[in-house]
Hints:
mainly alpha, 86 residues, globular, 62% helix
Amino acid sequence: MDTEYLTGAQAAAHVNRARQFLSAGTLHVRPATIHQWVRRGHLSPVGIAEDGRTRLYRLADVARAELATRGRALRHVTTLVTDTRQ
């Protein structure tokens, strides 16, 4: 099996697709969020792209980080929906 490597922007796009599916399009992850996951220890870069400065992440690791943070994100959406209904 080949390992797929993603830049921070590609990782954010991947997570967006997953979260939008689960939340009917209400969640969005920015590349800065990927960098926050790194700082918080949810995700580790595995290399550097050919440009010499863009970090690369494994798709499987991005999926695990998304799963680890999904509960908090979905609670946030639930709170937003509840607040707008009141």
